[in-house]
Structures are given as structure tokens and as C-alpha cells.
Amino acid sequence: MNMGAPVSTRGVSARPPVCWRLCWENELELADHIELSDFFRKTYGPTGEFNAKPFEGHRSWAGARPEIRAIGYDDRGVAIHIAALRRFIKVGEIDLLVAELGLYGVRPDLEGLGITHSIRVMYPVLRDLGVPFGFGTVRSALQKHITRLLGRQGLATVLPGFRVRSARPDICLTVPPTRVEDVVVLVLPIARPMSEWPAGEMIERNGPEL
């Protein structure tokens, strides 16, 4: 798998093309982390000061550190980002290998490209990794929005009504070491069909959220 080949979006949008860089985490240089940290602070900052805080100190991840990143660049720098991490989660009573997708961000002036295009870019990566499923979560309030963007286009199956327990990325004496959230689950069938996704409405992430 060539993780360094750029993929252009020329022809997809009237905007200047976005060229994708697919890279393993170990391939990132210090300058990459600094640039990504600035991108995430500016992208997540308008949604709340706390959301930008994990990216202080030139840190380019929020919870679990990703394994693979897809970074879209244009003539202004980082434009869009999505990452993946292979891990075992427990769905009901079944341990399941997935590639968790997260650390999604898009520069406000490029909202038209959005998550749909980044998911399309990641599909070949996930196929090369041979994982049974891609997996992600969003807040329940975003169910209609994410269904319109991904579910109706057949890019992912949207499953509401789940609870996910995750480890907190840092230990704090005033809060429990894990947290439980009500979420909408996104499943991308990769090497196995959706019919083989396990039954169960409780998911153990057994680690921090990506």
C-alpha cells in the first residue's frame, strides 16, 4: 500500500484542488504536527474553547493517537483531515476488529467537500488494511445530518441508539476513569457484510476515543 501518494479532487469541486497525503503516524515530522495542531485549534475552536484545548502544545491528536491519517492540502495549507486506528472493540459480548475513524476536521471555507469526500478517500486504505469494518461515532443530535451525508449515499450504515464506554485520555482525581455516552454509530462494511455486524447496543471501546 502506497501511503504517500497524493489524490487530487480536481473536477469534484469548482474550488482549487485538494491533494491528499496518506501517511502512517511515524512518517509525520515535527513541522507536520505543528501545522496540524494549528489546523485543529482553528477548526474546533469555534465549536467551544474546550474542544480546541487538547491540541495545545503542538499536539495533533485529542485522545487515542491515530495510526493512519489522510490529510488534504490546498494552496492555503491543511484543508481537511481524517484519521484511522485499528483496534478491538466489544459489541455486546463479541470482540470485533475495526478501523475506528475520527479526528475529522475541515476548514470552514471548504465545507462543500466535507466528510463524504474524506470517507471516499479512506475506503481504499481500509480495504488494503483488510479490516472487517470501519467504525465511528457521532453525537445523537447529528443523526439526521450524518444520515443525509453518508447513509443515503451508501457510504456508511447509520445505527442510532447505542451507548459507548471509553477510557478518558488523562487521569483526573475528580472524575471516573471512563465515561459512557449516547451515540449514533457509523459502520462501513469493508471485508465483511453488514449482516455480520454483532447484535448489542453497548459498545466497549476499551481505550480513549480517537
Automatic annotation (TrEMBL):
| Keywords annotated in UniProt | Acyltransferase, Cytoplasm, Nodulation, Transferase
UniProt keyword Acyltransferase present: yes
Q: What GO cellular component is one of the record's annotations?
A: cytosol
Annotated InterPro entries: NodA, Nodulation_prot_NodA_CS
Top-level EC class as recorded in UniProt = transferase
Q: Does the keyword Acyltransferase apply?
A: yes
Q: Where in the cell is it found?
A: Cytoplasm
The record's listing under PROSITE patterns reads: NODA
A GO molecular function for this record?
Answer: acyltransferase activity
Q: What does the record give as EC number?
A: 2.3.1.-
- In terms of domain of life, where is this protein from? Bacteria
According to its UniProt record, which protein family does this protein belong to?
Answer: Belongs to the NodA family.
What does the function comment of this entry state?
N-acyltransferase required for nodulation. Acts in the production of a small, heat-stable compound (Nod) that stimulates mitosis in various plant protoplasts.
> What is the protein name given in its UniProt record?
Nodulation protein A
Q: Which organism is it from?
A: Bradyrhizobium japonicum
